[in-house]
Amino acid sequence: MAEDQRPPVFELHIRPMFRLLDREHMLTFVDPGFDLWDLENVWTMRNDILVRLRGEGLFNMPGQKVGGPWPAEWIDLFERWTQNPNADDIGHHLLLGQRDGDYQLQPVSDKRRLRAKVTAPSPGCHAWFALESVTPGRREYTLYVEPPLPAPAAAPTAIPALEMFDKGDVATLVIHDAGGTQELPIA
Ligand code: HEM
């Protein structure tokens, strides 16, 4: 892999290529079904998936009649992900953030700034709040850490995670992290 090529990450670049239609069908049309949104399922099935994506198997996946096949760049990206496992020999993926101390919420005029101090497993990691859903009065986030690939020697490192959002009608923040799920009331 060329030095400057950004390593593909399961949650950021691979899982989003699989539609709900694909996931539902592969959970139910084959026995045993497998979950195209699950890291370990996709890693285990990676070679079979690649054969189907390339149309080398019995069926092209996804079938032409349901919007397939994928463009070549998507198939190349999936292949590149399969060729660069992390140290635990599984596809490169995000970690749930380990929060150090409470979440900080500050008013910034009609916006709110959400901060966290995160303990990352090594230098070179990035942490951020991924927005999972916005419903009336509620915003749901996952605190993620992206480790570098290849991973350097383990050395717990404090890094920040930061998000700004419009207060609007938000009354509750739901945040998933390594410690579980937290609900924060918003004043
Ligand atoms: C190990 C790899 C895979 C196997 C063995 C497999 C097998 C199958 C089988 C047996 C069917 C039913 C075909 C029929 O009865 O017409 C099917 C349908 C389907 N599969 Fe897969 N599949 C694989 C990977 C994938 C992937 C990677 C996607 C999406 C990116 C996908 C999307 C679909 C969809 C949307 C259908 C329903 C529509 C259709 O028949 O094309 N599958 N698959």
Describe this structure in words.
This protein is α+β, with helices and mostly antiparallel strands and 187 residues long. The protein folds into two domains: 80 residues, no CATH class; 91 residues, no CATH class. It is built from five helices and eight strands. Strands 1, 4, 5, 7 and 8 form a five-stranded mixed beta sheet that branches. β2 and β3 form a beta hairpin. α4 packs antiparallel against α5. The radius of gyration is 19 Å and the shape is globular. The chain starts with 9 loop residues before the first helix and ends with a strand. The protein binds protoporphyrin IX containing FE (HEM). The site of protoporphyrin IX containing FE has 17 residues, from α2 and α4.
Summarize the structure.
With 187 residues, the chain is of the alpha+beta class.
Q: Which ranges are low-confidence, i.e. pLDDT below 50, for 5 or more consecutive residues?
A: none
Count of distinct strands: 8
Distinct small-molecule ligands in the complex = protoporphyrin IX containing FE
Cα-atom radius of gyration: 19 Å
What portion of residues is helical?
10-25%
Strand content: 25-35%
End-to-end CA span: 48 Å
